[in-house]
Design a protein that fits this description.
This protein has helices at 21-28, 45-64, 78-83, 112-122, 168-188, 266-271, 294-304, 331-338, 352-362, 372-375, 398-401, and strands spanning 32-37, 40-43, 68-69, 75-77, 95-98, 104-107, 131-140, 155-165, 193-197, 207-214, 220-224, 231-233, 250-264, 274-276, 282-284, 286-293, 306-307, 310-311, 322-326, 343-346, 366-370, 379-384, 390-394. It is α+β, with helices and mostly antiparallel strands and 404 residues long. The chain has two domains: 33-307, BirA Bifunctional Protein, domain 2 (2-Layer Sandwich), CATH 3.30.930; 320-401, Anticodon-binding domain (Rossmann fold), CATH 3.40.50.800. It is elongated and about 80 Å long.
């Protein structure tokens, strides 16, 4: 992509309302825009490329868990939410509206009701189970105070996976598989997350865990043990010692990046979702749900991977593999690199200082500079975003020397 033709506009200063590091850098680097309304963001080309990389990474892991991808409606009828008695109890409250037929609808903040309704109509026998359904879709939360950029918003993109089982033991086994898959996803995004016992809130579930990235700017207050893996959200416990090893618990703050729930028969019971077992008897379907907010994950990565100059993207989810900085014409090198890599080509008529500052701010893993000085040596200058080291590589050896 030629930067001169791209919708990439960087800012020298972040908006006054931006407090979180991720909010400041994502706005300044031209990944997102917040002109619509508070807590509602537009993903610009750079930001959307990162979101697609995150979605593809998550999608790969969900498919490996035998997940089947669907796309469910944002608009959901009131009667489904009344079946589970959540129409008036969701926290944050639902966005509600009335259509021209004077029927109430809600913008979905989650999809347990919609999918349980589908399953109760399609699943008949134990032979139809287990069933694993997921989607990557917009969600809506009627937040009173949207803060922190993408960390707390009113409209966001979520991956939500729902599993349906004949037996509780099968739900428990699958829950553990998802837990391990989540650890893998966050590791690939360059995050070290802590698995934390948590509250099910208005989603429910007797067993539920959050994946928290320990961070001083995090909203969630946690209690963690430094001697074992125990951790708990202070919403559900104020204990001072660890129940596993009796060590003193330490307070910490975290950013929640994933939440998984063993829902059991909560929704099946409320919505009469049954299957017929081997003996011909009707049984309630066991259910689990598993969510990851993609925008919050993107922001958390920036909170973890940055320096004073800007973002430092992990290569798995960077918007491009290479940022090619042309101080002279470098069209031929751009064409050759584009055959093997995703390249952002800074061909703008700007000073070297502006180009280098923008490259650091945007944070693509590898920077290649072409200048009169490097061409005099039949070379280009290569620098990794994470490192200060700069090296010259002969143009004829360039493609074979790159391992992005």
């Amino acid at each position: 992509m030629k930067q001169s033709k791209a919708l990439i506009k960087t800012l020298k200063q972040a908006p006054k309302q931006a407090e979180a590091i991720s909010h400041k850098f994502l706005i300044r680097a031209g990944f997102i825009d917040t002109a619509v309304a508070a807590g509602i963001y537009s993903y610009l080309p750079l930001g959307w490329r990162v979101m697609q990389k995150i979605a593809d990474l998550i999608r790969s892991e969900m498919n490996a868990l035998s997940g089947q991808e669907v796309f469910l409606p944002c608009l959901q009828p009131k009667n489904l939410w009344q079946e589970t008695k959540r129409w008036d109890t969701m926290d944050p409250p639902l966005f509600k509206l009335k259509d021209r037929h004077k029927k109430y609808l809600a913008l979905g903040s989650t999809h347990e009701e919609v999918l349980t309704d589908i399953v109760r109509r399609f699943v008949e026998s134990y032979k139809d189970l287990p069933l694993y359904i997921y989607q990557i879709q917009n969600k809506f939360r009627n937040e009173m105070r949207a803060v922190g950029g993408l960390l707390r918003v009113r409209e966001f993109i979520m991956k939500d996976l729902y599993s349906f089982h004949a037996e509780k033991s099968d739900l428990e086994k699958y829950y553990d598989k998802v837990l391990k898959a989540y650890e893998k996803i966050f590791a690939q995004c360059g995050l070290k997350t802590k698995i934390v016992q948590a509250s099910g809130g208005t989603i429910g579930g007797s067993i539920t865990h959050e994946f928290q990235m320990i961070c001083t700017t995090g909203e969630d207050r946690l209690l963690i043990c430094i001697k074992c893996n125990f951790a708990v959200n202070q919403e559900i416990s104020q204990a001072k010692t660890c129940p596993n090893c009796n060590s003193l618990l330490e307070q910490a703050r975290g950013i929640e990046n994933g939440h998984i729930f063993q829902l059991g028969t909560k929704y099946a019971k409320a919505m009469k979702a049954h299957y017929t077992d081997k003996n011909g008897k009707k049984q309630l379907i066991q259910m689990g749900c598993y969510g990851i907010g993609l925008g919050r994950l993107m922001a958390t990565i920036v909170e973890t991977h940055h320096d004073s100059k800007g973002i430092i993207w992990p290569k798995n989810i960077a918007p491009f593999d290479i940022h090619l900085i042309a101080l002279v014409n470098a069209d031929k090198i751009y064409q050759e690199l584009s055959e093997k890599f995703e390249v952002l080509y800074d061909d703008r008529d700007e000073s070297p200082g502006i180009k280098f500052n923008d490259a650091d701010l945007i944070g693509i893993p590898l920077r290649i500079v072409v200048s009169e000085k490097t061409l005099a040596k039949n070379s280009v200058e290569i620098k990794k975003r994470r490192e200060d080291k700069v090296e010259l590589v002969k143009i004829k050896n360039l493609l074979n020397s790159l391992y992005v």
